[in-house]
Structure formats: C-alpha cells, structure tokens
Amino acid sequence: MKILAIESSCDETAAAVVADGRQVLSDIVASQVDEHMLYGGVVPEIASRRHIESISGVVSQALSAASLGWGDIDAVAVTYAPGLIGALLVGVSYAKGLAMASGLPLVPVHHIAGHIAANYISHPDLEPPFLCLVVSGGHSLIVEVPEYTRFRVIGRTRDDAAGECFDKAARVLGYPYPGGKYIDAAAKKGSKTAFKFTHPKLSGCEYDFSFSGLKTAVINLVHNAEQRGETLPVEDVAASFQKTVADILAEKTALAAKALGYKKIAVAGGVSANFGVRARMKKLADSLGAELYLPEPKYCGDNAAMIGAQGYYDFLAGKRADESLNAVATLSLEDI
Ligand code: KG4
Ligand code: ZN
Questions:
Q1: Ligand found nearest the CA of 136
Q2: Which pLDDT score, from 0 to 100, does residue 214 have?
Q3: Could you tell me the sign of the dihedral formed by the alpha carbons of 271, 277, 279, 282, in that order?
Q4: pLDDT tens digits, 162-190
Q5: How confident is the model at residue 243 (pLDDT cuts 50, 70, 90)?
Q6: CB of 274 closer than 6 angstroms to any ligand 1 atom
Q7: Distance, CA of 60 to CA of 32 (rounded, Å)
Q8: What is the DSSP track for 295-320?
Q9: Separation CA 139–CA 110 (nearest Å)
C-alpha cells in the first residue's frame, strides 16, 4: 500500500511516498530555516506563507521522485496536530483538496506519533511494545507504545523541551537558530567535564523533566564571564552542557525502562540526531541489556516519510478524516 504523506507543522514543507509503512519511495523536504534564522526563531506568519508557496511543488516532486502518478497512490496522510496552527492548516487544506479530488482516503496523523514512527523506517524489525524517549523542539516525553496506534505518556517536561534548551543555550553561546546542531558540532571539540551543571530535583512524577534551570545556568555562566571581561571556552561549555542533557534524558529513561521492564528502547525527534544523546542512550541500553532503536539522522528532524509510516498503521487501524478535518495546535498523544 502506497501512502502520499504531507507534513507542514513548523518550518519544513515536506511530502513523501511510503510503501507499507516501512519503505520510503521518495522523501522531499523544503526547509525554511535560512529565513527564520534571521529572526532567531520560527516566525509563524512567514512559515504559513512559505508553506503555501512550496506545497504544490513539494508534493509533485514527491510523486515524480518515486516515479509514480496519482493512480499508484492508495491514501493521503497529513499531519493535523500539534504545531503552528497556520502552518498545519496549509498541509491539512492541501491534503483535503487532494483526497477530495482523487477520491482517496485521508488519514490524519499526530506529529509526535510520526516522529516515533521514523524508527519503523530505520528498523524494519521494530514492533510495539517498546518505550520511546521523544525529544524535539517542542516536546520532551517518555512514552509507552503498546501498539502502533496507542500511546501512554508517562513523563513530560515541566518547562522547556530538550530542543528548546539546546536552542536557547546555543543562542547565548553565539550560534545561529536552531542551535542544537551547532552545540553538537562544538561539543565534539570540547571537554565534557570542564563545567559542572547540576541536575534538577523534581518532586512528583519521577519520569518528568525540567530544563529551565540548566538553560538559566548556561545563560548566567555566559553573562558573568562577559561582565568580568573573560572569554569562555565555548566548546567546553557546549560539551559539558550536552553531557548534562544526555545524562538527564538517559537517567529518566533508565528509571522508566527498569520499572516497567522494557527491553526495547527507541528515541525520536530532532534532538535524537545529537551525537552525545545517541552515544549516551546506547550506553544506557547496553547497561540494561536492552535493544536501542535510533532513527537515521535524516529522519530525526521533521519530514513526511515518518508521517507516511505512522499513516500506514493509522490507516490499518481504521483512522479516516473527511472534509471537516481541522488543524489542532495542541493535542496530547493520548487523545488521538
Ligand atoms: O523534531 P524537530 O525537527 O521539530 C519539532 O517537532 O520540534 O526538532 C527540532 C529541534 C530543534 O530544537 C533543534 O535544535 C534540535 O531539534 N536539533 C538538535 C540537533 N539537531 C536538531 N539538537 C541537538 N543536537 C542536534 N544534532
Ligand atoms: Zn517535529
């Protein structure tokens, strides 16, 4: 079964064709990042406008790169939540138009479920149940995945998401937006023991995260150095910061995996591209005798192939939308 998938929840206009949820026949991503970089973050109004300009070309490219025509496609899948409302609306409206014009079924897909499903593309053997650490620009979650279309969120961030923390630390260290990948590159050249950042102490849910304290610690370190006229070893700060984030993510995931008895652990979302996080999670999985599943780097960030992968399992579960489908800015994985 071939699904044409569309993703436009933030600043990438993406379309892909995916066969049977696992085989990517084409994967087109038009990124707007260079434009948003000028403003130090995603400007929602600009994002919506660029999606409108790009979407029809991106969808045509996805079909032609797969050497397919509309007659070869069995369903259209689209990200409808969560994300920037205006950005989501472009993909949702376009997908509705395509489905109505072609008579194909329309499958609504949750963006975070899509990130998790990126692992099905990279690991043909991966099947639920498994535990997944989701770390993106807007979310930090520990999720139980008992079935392809069922999710139980057992840990979440109380403030900033991991990706947000990377981007804010990167900004104060002088890197462009989005800064996660620049910290990653700098960290490879620095000492991860040069600076000591404390881990947050949280009462209540033991699987929850908090990253605002760490963000503030980096900001204070930089501002104090500036006031004293000192030059900070930026690569050492990046390496020490990245180690702290990776340790926090791994420790919480380890707690959950041990308590709930998971031997299959996946990681998903933009931050799963991070070298330090990948290495730390591998160490954790080895220590637990668990199997670790990481998306290939190109499927860590936003893309439509992951939406086609999840869309396949959503289709099999009978999920369908009609012309009344609307975009939703905020929606928990548990409410889909
Ligand atoms: O999943 P994603 O592409 O978009 C959302 O759904 O939010 O995640 C984007 C986030 C950004 O914060 C970006 O800086 C971060 O993922 N990111 C990274 C790396 N690559 C992307 N963070 C750390 N290291 C990386 N290599
Ligand atoms: Zn995303």
A1: 1
A2: 97
A3: negative
A4: 999 999 999 999 999 999 999 999 999 99
A5: very high
A6: yes
A7: 18
A8: --GGGTSS-SHHHHHHHHHHHHTT--
A9: 13
| 188-205 pLDDT tens trace | 999 999 999 999 989 999
Confidence of residue 307 (pLDDT cuts 50, 70, 90): very high
List the domains of the chain with CATH numbers.
Answer: 2-116+300-335 (3.30.420.40), 128-298 (3.30.420.40)
Q: Is 295 in the pocket of ligand 1 (CB under 6 A)?
A: no
Query: From ligand 2's centre to the CA of 8, what distance in Å?
Result: 10
CB 27 within 8 A of CB 304: yes
At what angle are helices 162-172 and 180-187 packed, to 10 degrees?
A: 70
Q: Rounded CA gap, 280 and 243, in Å?
A: 8
Residues with CB under 5 A from ligand 2 (ion): 136, 302
Atom of ligand 1 nearest to the CA of 275: 26
Ligand 2 centroid to Cα of residue 10, in Å, is 8
DSSP string, 234-267: HHHHHHHHHHHHHHHHHHHHHHHHHHHT-SEEEE
Mean pLDDT of 253-259: 98
Other Cβ atoms less than 10 A from the Cβ of 30: the count is 18
* Beta strand ranges found along 186-276 (DSSP E): 264-268
Mutate which of 116, 119, 136 for ligand 1 pocket (most atoms within 8 A of beta carbon) = 136
Pairwise CA distance, residues 35 & 44, whole Å: 12
Distance 69 CA to ligand 2 centre (A): 28
**Could you tell me where the DSSP H helices lie in 159-233?**
162-172, 180-187, 212-228
Give yes or no for residue 8 CB within 6 A of ligand 1: no
